[in-house]
Amino acid sequence: MGFWKTLCAALAVAVLLGSAPAEARFGKRSKPNTSDRKDSDDSDGKHEHRATPVGRASDAPVRSSVRASGVGPGWFDVLFISGPASYHRRARAEVPRGQRAPRPAPLVHLNVQGNSFGDVGGALDLFMALDGQRWGMDARVSGIALETDDGSAGTDRLTLLDAHLTLSPWSSERGRFRMEAGIASAHAPDAIFVGPSLAASLEACIGPSPFDVEARIQVVPFPHRQVDMQAGLALHLGALNLRGGWRTLYLSDGGHLDGVVHADNFTGPYLGLGLSF
């Protein structure tokens, strides 16, 4: 129960972070002689830097990365899964009463996913996973292209990498729950961060239908702060699966570059295509 309490607390914090307005670009040094407002951030002397869009008064409200449609993070954001769940469909054959269902064989999942963050930018993700009965592995790369936050020409690019070992305390013909631990890196315009990474993911069948619900949350506590949540549905068509849902991503460099905290909050839908074999 201790793990569940900790996970629930992390989810609550992540939702609160996800509702905050976006700030200056993560991992990008502040330019000198700007008119951006700087607020004090605790007693350690760091300052919070809020980006002011070009052509807008410095006291005007800052536009959030959350899309203007009003759709934002909520309960759906704290559910997500790290890969297709078709592995457990192999174990649905009739089993005589009193006998265990056969253990699912190790499966390889390969996925590509596109994310839209509204008028802020978007991301392309590639990830693969290997699932055994209890142990496995998961590796991901996410390339993010964003509009510059200072009005200059060009594009800000971020790359997120992570590799995890996975442990499945629950694995059956109905689904799988994973606990993940490993290492993650964030490659920003002016910095590269590398730190420990923790994640939890869940996938479960929806009745006898070909649909699965999938959910995942990943947290990097230091040196940068990263909370990545995703939730959706997967439609299985044999070895092929189609996935869609919602993603929320929060990034903060903690003021490690120049004493100014640079943070970003992105949220939007995703669509994905994958294979399981």
Major sheet: order of its strands? 3-4-5-6-7-8-9-10-11-13
User: Can you write the helix and strand succession as a string?
Assistant: HEEEEEEEEEEEEE
CATH topology: Lipocalin
Question: What is the CA–CA distance across the termini?
Answer: 34 Å
The first-level CATH class is given as Mainly Beta
Major β-sheet profile: 10 strands, antiparallel, barrel
Overall pLDDT score: 75
User: Can you tell me the overall shape?
Assistant: globular
What Rg is obtained from the alpha carbons, in whole angstroms?
A: 20 Å
Count, helices: 1
Contiguous low-pLDDT stretches (5 residues minimum) are 1-8, 10-23, 34-95
Q: Find the structural class using helix and strand composition.
A: mainly beta
- Give the second-level CATH assignment, the architecture: Beta Barrel
